Fold these 2 entries.
Entry 1:
Amino acid sequence: MDERPPRILALAGSLRKASFNRKILRYAIEGARAAGGKVEELGPEWLRLPLYDGDLEVSGRFPDDVETWRRKILECDGLLIASPEYNHGISGVLKNAIDWGSRPPNVFSGKVAASFGITPGAQGTARSQMNLRVCLAAINVWVVPKTVLVPHAREAFDDAGNLRNERQIQELIALGGALVAAVLSGVARG
Ligand SMILES: Cc1cc2nc3c(=O)[nH]c(=O)nc-3n(C[C@H](O)[C@H](O)[C@H](O)COP(=O)(O)O)c2cc1C
């Protein structure tokens, strides 16, 4: 058994400075750290990659920022993903980053992920989570079965920027912990 703490990358699939999804990421990060994970939060700059274009792959070599992104994913054990919902699917920036990482050799293969999201609407990104799971299954990522859906984003935070609903906070913290437990279980090995 590997003695190192699980290395977790946390990211939101949004470039927006005031992203609601980035705001709730910190609760899942807290849970992952409490469970012993070594967590690094990746800011939106990590998703500012060129649009996927096969012509940018030259002799198995990718653009420099894509190479950096791919290396980052390769070196982690697990991913915490706060996924917005755009037209019932995941955001273009998140899909683009996944697509770049999936090119052979697929750097996502054998990783574990937990995903969740928040939206101003009533469904709390339910459809985006389903869509994300389909993409992650395609690239051999093990996804923690539970998710956390936070609806009504505009009313969800207090003036200090904290989620008002304690149950949602506890569920996000628990999901971060569940990701670390899944990595430690070795579910994705072999
Ligand atoms: C192009 C576009 C499509 C959207 N489609 C949906 C949708 O299908 N369902 C939904 O709940 N919200 C939808 N929204 C609203 C987003 O959930 C909202 O903008 C959210 O704040 C984005 O996440 P962020 O705050 O983390 O950037 C859409 C927003 C955009 C810009």
Entry 2:
Amino acid sequence: MLDLSALLEALCAVVPDRRPGSPGNHAATDLVARTLTDLGWTVEMPAFPVVDWAGEPGQLTLDGRTWPVHPSPYGTGWSGTARLHAAGSEADLAGDHAGAILLLHGALTTGPLTPKGYPFYGSDRDTRIIDALEASGAAAVLAITGTAHGIAGAVDPFALIEDSAFTLPAGDLRRDAGGALLAVLAEHPQAVAELALPARRWPSTASNVLARRGDQSDRITVVAHVDTKPGTPGAIDNGTGVVVLLRVAELLADLPDDARPGVELLAMNGEDSHQAAGELDYLAATDLSRVRLAINVDGAGHRSGPTAYSTYGTPDDLDLAPLADHGLVEGPPWPQSDHMVFAMAGVPAIALTSSAMQALLVELVHSPHDTPDLTDPVLLEGAAQGIAALIRAQH
Ligand SMILES: [Zn+2]
């Protein structure tokens, strides 16, 4: 039997982490593919281009005082001296900022800006701001952000712009540091600031991992994203989901080759990336009308309570008792993560996550604190048993 704790430890120990296209991400997808192959599944690893990134803590110095600056993930770096221009509104962006460091605050930094070309939704307001920044001639863009739990998880400061296509160097400051910096800038508006922002990005490749058994023309797809945000071990988000996926593979290893519905197991590589490259690659290659049901596991296994399930367009006669039989409870709707890739296309979907997800978004998700010791392997076993039983009940 698979050692679920050891698998989770291995997924969370890769270096630097599981950001798509990184060495750690390749180590993780290789581990998943090897485990599925060993369990007798037919495995494919379709590859696609992504942008990889590395950054380190930076700093800004003004009038002899220094503040930490966090490089925006997937942004470019910059080091040098320039005047600092504060901008708190869209109107402020219209001024002459050529060669300056723009310091965004207030109404401009209430939440992350939608990345350019994000495939699943857009915002006219965010597009206007991004366009104005890129046309400003500024040397770099810094944003005073803070937290935005629902969208950015437990990150402080969140990245205003997390976008490998954004053309300017970008970094972020926490609210306390940013407030002090604005006060010094107000006293010394002509002072020259010195910025050190070490970051760089480069092209790489990444892969989804797909394993199949039985009739694929009428199938159930079980999905868990294998990637992470930069800088998190990603135990709850979403090493646990991958471990559940692997355990489902083990529980269904005896499924006959002509099983109908068939089963597709998908380790998706892009849920936590603005590039969503794994999702787009899968959608381009897949006829979703062949998927009878999608089951997504993301954020499950936190030791604080049971695993929660929620449904999206599932038929009334789908019996969910196998989930309850294995300790899962019904939870609130959660219209995020990879089940929406299916639900938005009209495919019935089920999502599994921790019942404490709303608290985890504040305390844990996307942060360095998302470590394996916070998980309960009994919950992972229960989730896998529930999924496997629900699938077997369709045969
Ligand atoms: Zn996730």
